[in-house]
């Protein structure tokens, strides 16, 4: 039986996988996250997930390594994690009253097999006032999250509606991932 490694520092991804009863360790490598703009956005996000997983898989060839990446797309604009509070404010202003896509890329790698996939969830925000934005930034919640919000936290107050996988927004499309992992299990038998 192979061991699983989650190649991510995200506490949300760890929690989501733990809730599913998967036994795994966390090993993450610092990689330079560069989102390609010459390919389709979903493919570029998958590629980042792949790079995160591959950096760890190289040192752990006997494990099944899971990498993930999440970005927020508003038309042609793509938001990762805000660099500072000013950028968080700009992202929240842009998302206010609009519908955006949360794109999650996932890569699962073993020595024998590599699967990458992406998941898109539509999220619509109510209009958000400057005061709400200021209060929200003061909470500290936006700073380590793509699009500067956390749907699972105080950020839920902005959400008018959602279409698609909620858990993809939180950081990991767990149900699809478990199905992919089941394929790796079969391969191991
Ligand atoms: C939109 C949204 C994102 N997020 C989080 C999920 C991810 O942790 C983060 C996006 O940043 P990522 O760069 O995808 O991941 P990370 O830096 O947290 O972790 P690692 O690269 O080590 O895997 O935003 C939420 O927690 N809630 C939300 O509603």
Automatic annotation (TrEMBL):
UniProt keyword list: Cytoplasm, Hydrolase, Nucleotide metabolism
Major subcellular site: cytoplasm
Location within or outside the cell: Cytoplasm
Source organism superkingdom: Bacteria
Cofactor(s) the protein requires to work: a divalent metal cation
Pfam families, per database record: Maf
EC number: 3.6.1.9
Family to which this protein belongs: Belongs to the Maf family. YhdE subfamily.
Name of protein: dTTP/UTP pyrophosphatase
Organism: Amedibacillus dolichus
Taxonomic lineage: Bacteria, Bacillati, Bacillota, Erysipelotrichia, Erysipelotrichales
């Amino acid at each position: 039986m192979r061991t699983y490694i989650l190649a991510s520092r995200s506490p949300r991804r760890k929690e989501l996988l733990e809730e599913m009863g998967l036994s795994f360790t966390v090993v993450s490598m610092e990689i330079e996250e560069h989102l390609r703009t010459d390919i389709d956005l979903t493919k570029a996000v998958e590629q980042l997930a792949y790079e995160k997983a591959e950096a760890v898989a190289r040192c752990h060839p006997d494990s099944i390594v899971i990498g993930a990446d999440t970005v927020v797309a508003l038309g042609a604009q793509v938001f990762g994690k805000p660099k500072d509070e000013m950028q968080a404010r700009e992202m929240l202003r842009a998302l206010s009253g609009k519908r955006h896509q949360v794109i999650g890329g996932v890569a699962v790698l073993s020595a024998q097999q590599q699967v990458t996939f992406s998941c898109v969830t539509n999220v619509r925000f109510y209009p958000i006032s400057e005061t709400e934005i200021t209060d929200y930034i003061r909470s500290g919640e936006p700073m380590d999250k793509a699009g500067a919000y956390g749907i699972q936290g105080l950020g839920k107050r902005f959400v008018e509606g959602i279409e698609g996988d909620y858990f993809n927004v939180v950081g990991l499309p767990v149900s699809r991932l478990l199905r992919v992992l089941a394929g790796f299990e079969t391969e191991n038998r």
